[in-house]
Amino acid sequence: MSRETDLNRMSYLVKLLNQYGYEYYVLDNPTVEDIEYDSLTRELKALEELYPNDILDNTPTKKVGDYLKTDLEEIVHENAMMSLQDVFSFDELYEFDERIRQITNNFSYTCELKIDGIASTAHYKDGLFTLGATRGNGIKGENITKNMVQIASLPKILKDHVSLEVRGEVFMKKSVLDSLNKKREANGESLFANCRNAAGGSLRQLDEHITKERHLDQFAYTLVNPSNYGINTQVDVLKFLSEQGFNVNPLYRHCKDINEVIDYIKEFDEKRKTLDYATDGIVIKVNEFKLYDVIGYTVKVPKWAVAYKFPAEIVTTKLKDIIFTVGRTGMITPNAVLDPVYVSGTKVSRATLNNEDFITSRDIRIGDYVRVRKAGEIIPEVVDVDLSRRTANLPIFKMIDICPECGMPVTKKDNEAEHYCHNPLCGGRILEGIIHFASRQAMDIDGLGDKQLEQLYDLGYIKDISDIYLLKNYASEIIMIDRYGIKKVSNLIDAIEKSKTQSLDRFIFGLGIKFIGAKASKSLVKEFKSLDKIMHATYIELLSIEDFGEVMADSIINYFNDSKNVELINKLLSYGVNPTVNIIETSDLFNGKSIVLTGALTRFTRDEASLVIEKLGGKAASSVSSKTSFVVAGSDAGSKLTKAKELGIKVLNEEEFFEIIKDYL
Predict the structure, then answer these.
(1) Cβ proximity of 655 and 622 under 8 Å
(2) How far apart are CA 167 and CA 326, in angstroms?
(3) Which of 483, 331, 319, 346 is nearest to 405 (CA)?
(4) What DSSP character marks residue 408?
(5) N or C: which terminus of the chain has fewer CB atoms within 10 Å of its end residue's CB?
(6) Do residues 460 and 474 make contact, with C-beta atoms less than 8 angstroms apart?
(7) Which residue stretches of 272-317 are H helix?
């Protein structure tokens, strides 16, 4: 591949991995499996090794996690909270062991269960708890002291009057999650996806009383600066923490070599399924602290520890029934109704069966015992059947031929695996479309979750997405509905009003146009810059958009050629919906110029300066090359400034740059 192709791939991977990191560290809601994230990270590292002068400033290979400013107070960690390198096979563990043995042979390991929760740190002064914080990006975190006080298993007064900092994992037990989700379901609230998601949402509450009601727990596993307390090994740290009153997971083990480590992993790959908390791997550390500086660190992780991640868990349970749901595009999806079972820390009673071909190719039948896993550790799916447990005379699966919602015929095209209901008035399609429109990824209307919309739809208050903007006319009636009230309805009306100025790409995505996802919606807005131009785009214009194919172009044309869809959009606009488009007005001052920013700027943030450059027609490049027009160097500029001087590229300080652009601001 060409250098340009490689650099484009680098840029794409940085953006993608930062998004995945945001979902994991900030939203506590990962959307990809760890092994996929690790594979993409390794690909990025390989490209960065190939092009060291083109490494992007925001690369996730040089930072821990992600950080989002919230209403919680920001704190700076005195000692960085580093993450660990993930490994997924015993071969990788042997390689890890061999790297250490090239340095020393006089060491042992400690193995601890990797709890699937939220990393936190707790500070004590003279034996009293004084500060609690999240890991954040490893350098900065969020002050959650009031919330950590509510964790019963975290000691507030230590046995001895010592001042120390202890790191651990805040988690929610499976049994607590079950109880909490039952209450939320009864109240019409959205359910927590898993133990980690629940723990994260509970720990970051602005109201500590809510945190208290969530009954969180914590396992302590690290003491900062243990040598200050005369402690020399990880095993002794765990004993010391336990003596001081901390909740230490008792299932840790001291192993003399890597073979004992692997035996421990094999043992707990089975035992973990019986635990009342979610664990997704094993943390392996060199036990002797004196070796840590000798073995060393990378920018992001220590070299003396790794986290072995268990393979995706597959469990067996009974298939009680197969039911069918209608999506917003009319697609009919068969779903398995299961005897409830835990899969990767979440209680699962439903799983997708994808389509008819999936079921028939595996000969899945109601009454079978099926194996279930989470696709990408997120979405439950049936893998296959345990034929050894099949009983006689189970009926062979037959796909439905009428829609379960409206009773109209279901059809399937020869070149597609899915069946569809094509009735535009199908209640199932309409409701799913309304849910999609209000969802977080689309118009993001807080308070209009699946349960609430289903209730309002059944009661007749909402029949299409435009009716959302008429709910304010029925506020006095909705207040009387069970589990609503004045404040809840007031907040809902405010959220609906706020959504009227949601971004245009989210609005387009929310319309539910077949084959047009969030990324395609952004591409449409970037290309056409207005709703009217998108609605009147030609087939040729649509095909000119990067990554747009014939199927997507046909779908856009067909959607806006349908008078009912146009009528719906016009109705939304008449109700005050006015999607925003952030169009940068450009000038040709920097037309065709590639400009690199380096060092700390005082008049602008880096993002603000980049926007100015783009506004004036230039490109804010991430690395210095022979094609760079000039470099803007703030204080503490580093390698980019050095390279610019080596290549003889013009360098401006911040004041010189400001003089050029000030008349355009």
Answers:
(1) no
(2) 47
(3) 331
(4) P
(5) N
(6) no
(7) 292-295
Range of lowest pLDDT (165-174, 283-292, 651-660): 651-660
Measured at the CA of 239, the angle between CA 236 and CA 240, to 5 degrees, comes to: 85
Beta bridge partners of 218: 170
3-class SS of residue 32: coil
Residue 31 and residue 379: Cα distance in Å, rounded?
A: 9
384: part of which helix (H) or strand (E)?
strand 379-385
CA 169/CA 302 separation, integer angstroms: 18
Q: Strands 109-115 and 253-255: what pairing? A: antiparallel
Residue reference for tokens 């989470």? 374
Q: Catalytic pick from 15, 114, 174, 487?
A: 114
Active site residue 463: no
For 353-362, letters b (16+ CB in 10 Å) and e give bbbbeebeeb
Q: Tell me if 603 sits within 8 A of 658, measured CB to CB.
A: yes
Question: 562 or 39, which is more confident?
Answer: 562
**366 touches 398 (CB < 8 A):** no
Nearest Cα residue to 531 out of 567, 496, 458, 580: 580
Cα-Cα-Cα-Cα torsion 648, 653, 658, 660, nearest 10 degrees, comes to -30
Structural tokens at position 401: 């031929």
Closest to 135 (Cα-Cα) out of 218, 66, 225: 66
The structure tokens listed for 475 are: 């506020």
Under 8 Å between Cβ of 428 and 404? yes
CA–CA separation, 190 and 183 (whole Å)? 10
Full 3-state SS string of 566-579: HHHHHHHHHCCCCC
| 65: pLDDT strictly greater than 60 | no
Report the C-alpha gap between 442 and 458 in whole angstroms.
Answer: 22
Residue with tokens 């036990």: 287
H-helix or E-strand containing 517? Answer: none
Strand partners, 90: none
Q: In which residue are the tokens 């990408």 written? A: 376
The stretch 408-420 carries a mean pLDDT of: 83
Q: For 253-330, list the strands marked E by DSSP.
A: 253-255, 279-286, 305-309, 315-326
The two structure tokens encoding residue 663 = 């008349």
Per-residue confidence band for 89, with pLDDT thresholds at 50, 70 and 90: confident
